[in-house]
Design goal:
Strands 1-2-8-3 form a 4-stranded antiparallel beta sheet, sandwiched between helices. A two-stranded antiparallel sheet has the order 4-5. Strands 6-7 form a two-stranded antiparallel ribbon. The chain contains 9 helices and 10 strands. The chain is of the alpha+beta class. Bound molecules: iron/sulfur cluster (SF4) (2 copies).
Length: 286
């Protein structure tokens, strides 16, 4: 299966309301149609990520694949990585833009029920390849996937969906650490590793911060001003401040005032900013 055909299958799956719902009983989609990208399993950036994030725990594609298929003979040149971006809907973004220090209920639903959509989409893509007799796995769904402590970056995990999307040509990082994609930063991401050589998506950037206005010209800082926790500065994203705010302020708020259970919902830095739903360094059409 080539990437355009695969992308069409993902778009079709997401167009089915039962697959893509913002929550039980709601006639609203969790996300807009996905963007899809691809990188070869031996892309040097995957080795760089392992060295940079955590040589002792971070997975390359061939390591993730070996966890899914123990005893496999696969080598990195046999593999490809397929990544996708799920853009938040305008309905969710608008609701979230109206809020101050607390997440909107729409955003909290997208964080909780939307991630269930993303999990199901991972399984769907793995099954699509399996139907063609091609082995595939979703690293984030593997039992061995876990959170870890990066010597350089603090909170991390064995497989980062955002970094994978960056390698797969889907965007660059902003001052807030979010991935700015052609559909902006208000997104969720997912990926699978597949034993097939698929045509890679060209990376149209040379720097990992290229699409952020702050790094492109020293201006903007809108995400800094929007963060109620003071977790974003010109030095970047303070993961400890961010996590503390979410765990102690917004997650209890979601439980008490919104959904009746805790959700790590915030993402205020992802809306009411120039990179919310587009690459702000791209020339506007028309
Ligand atoms: S809001 Fe501005 S400074 Fe922050 S990530 Fe987006 S473009 Fe960069
Ligand atoms: S997720 Fe919330 S707390 Fe964390 S950086 Fe963004 S706005 Fe700040």
């Amino acid at each position: 299966m080539d990437i355009p055909s695969l992308a069409a299958r993902l778009v079709g799956w997401m167009a089915v309301p039962e697959n893509n719902s913002l929550g039980p009983g709601l006639d609203l989609p969790a996300f807009d149609a996905p963007l899809v990208g691809c990188a070869p399993g031996d892309d040097p950036l995957f080795d760089f990520l392992k060295r940079d994030i955590g040589p002792g725990f971070y997975w390359t594609p061939v390591e993730a694949f070996a966890h899914a298929f123990p005893g496999t003979e696969a080598v990195s040149t046999d593999l490809s990585v397929v990544s996708w971006v799920l853009p938040q809907t305008e309905h969710t973004r608008r609701a979230h833009a109206r809020t101050g220090d607390m997440p909107s209920i729409e955003w909290s639903r997208a964080r909780h029920y939307g991630e269930k959509v993303n999990e199901a989409l991972r399984r769907f893509v793995v099954e699509l390849f399996a139907e063609e007799g091609v082995e595939a796995c979703a690293p984030a769904l593997l039992p061995l996937w876990t959170r870890a402590e990066s010597p350089k970056y603090g909170f991390a995990s064995t497989w980062s969906e955002r970094h994978t999307a960056h390698v797969c040509g889907l965007g660059t990082f902003g001052l807030s650490d979010g991935l700015i994609t052609p559909r902006g930063k208000a997104i969720r991401v997912g990926s699978v590793v597949v034993r097939a050589r698929l045509t890679p998506t060209p990376r149209t950037y040379t720097d990992h911060h290229e699409w952020c206005l702050f790094f492109a010209g020293g201006k903007c800082r809108a995400c800094m001003k929007r963060c109620p926790a003071g977790a974003i500065s010109e030095k970047g994203h303070d993961k400890v401040k961010c996590k503390t705010y979410i765990r102690s302020i917004t997650a209890p708020y979601v439980e008490e005032r919104q959904l009746g259970f805790r959700v790590n919902s915030c993402g205020l830095c992802q809306v009411r900013v120039p990179c919310e739903h587009r690459n702000p360094t791209a020339r506007r059409e028309g």
